[in-house]
Amino acid sequence: EADIYQTPRYLVIGTGKKITLECSQTMGHDKMYWYQQDPGMELHLIHYSYGVNSTEKGDLSSESTVSRIRTEHFPLTLESARPSHTSQYLCASSSRTGGTATNEKLFFGSGTQLSVL
Amino acid sequence: GENVGLHLPTLSVQEGDNSIINCAYSNSASDYFIWYKQESGKGPQFIIDIRSNMDKRQGQRVTVLLNKTVKHLSLQIAATQPGDSAVYFCAESKKTGFQKLVFGTGTRLLVSP
């Protein structure tokens, strides 16, 4: 069982509100990721981090921003939410260890389902 | 660019049958492949992975097969159970800089008793 936590699980807010989605992991992983997923669709990488003070944009353009001040914490912020931001947001982490085939697998949180009205 | 896709969006099987979920990829530079299971309302859960220097890898009730010639990946689930009902995603990555997984669309597996 992965030790990666996301809060809140569900969030319904009005247009224009600022929100922060929380993600924490207790595994000491250096890499963390944010994926966006629409119902029944594939996951799209929107942000990732190599480690503390490192943040990069992913393959899918997103108006959100992230920060990585502590190893275990990787929050995602939307300054002004819009209905187009309605989606599920999944946080993940990974750590490269040794040379086995399992050393790059991502551990995912349960996700935050965001609905912007 | 990379393209990871699945042949069938939904697969329905009877409990006890073997299930085969297929995945095609187009990036011949990919050297790592992974299958995830996602139940409703949950994040993806790791099932099994395989590197490009292998063509088969077995886990508990699951087997992943990799055919690099035709760029095809499959997940076999033996003696499928109702608890296996979920959406299954394949993903690929390549060893160039930061390892980023590219996910396919997903196949929904429905297991009826």
Summed up:
The complex is a heterodimer of chains A (117) and B (113). Chain A is mainly beta and 117 residues long.
Give the tags.
heterodimer, A: 117 residues, mainly beta, 4-stranded antiparallel sheet, 0% helix, B: 113 residues
Our estimate of the beta-strand percent of chain B is: over 45%
* Arithmetic mean pLDDT of chain B: 88
The description of the largest β-sheet of chain B is:
6 strands, mixed
Give the strand tally of chain B. 11
Structural class of chain B: mainly beta
Shape of chain A: globular
- The end-to-end span of chain A amounts to 34 Å
Major beta sheet summary of chain A: 7 strands, mixed
- Terminal CA distance of chain B reads 41 Å
**Integer average pLDDT of chain A:** 89
Unreliable stretches of chain B: none
Rg from alpha-carbon coordinates of chain A: 14 Å
What is the helix content of chain B?
under 10%
Most extensive contact: A-B, 28 and 28 residues
Order of helices and strands of chain A: EEEEEEEEEEE
Determine the structural class of chain A based on helices, strands and strand pairing: mainly beta
Total beta-strand segments of chain A: 11
Written description of the protein model:
- The complex is a heterodimer of chains A (117) and B (113).
- Chain A is mostly beta strands and 117 residues long.
- Chain A is 0% helix and 44% strand.
- In chain A, strands 2, 4, 5, 6, 9, 10 and 11 form a seven-stranded mixed β-sheet that branches. A four-stranded antiparallel β-sheet of chain A has the order 1-3-8-7, with no helix packed on it.
- The N and C termini of chain A lie far apart (34 Å).
- Mean pLDDT of chain A is 89; it is low at 98-103.
- Chain B is mostly beta strands.
- Chain B has no helices and eleven strands.
- In chain B, strands 2, 4, 5, 9, 10 and 11 form a six-stranded mixed β-sheet that branches.
- Chain B is globular.
- The model of chain B has no long low-confidence stretch (mean pLDDT 88).
- Chain A binds chain B through residues 6, 31, 35, 40-45, 48, 50, 56, 58-59, 90, 92, 94, 96, 101-102, 104-111, and chain B through 4, 32, 34, 36, 41-46, 49-51, 54, 57, 87, 89, 93, 98-106, 108.
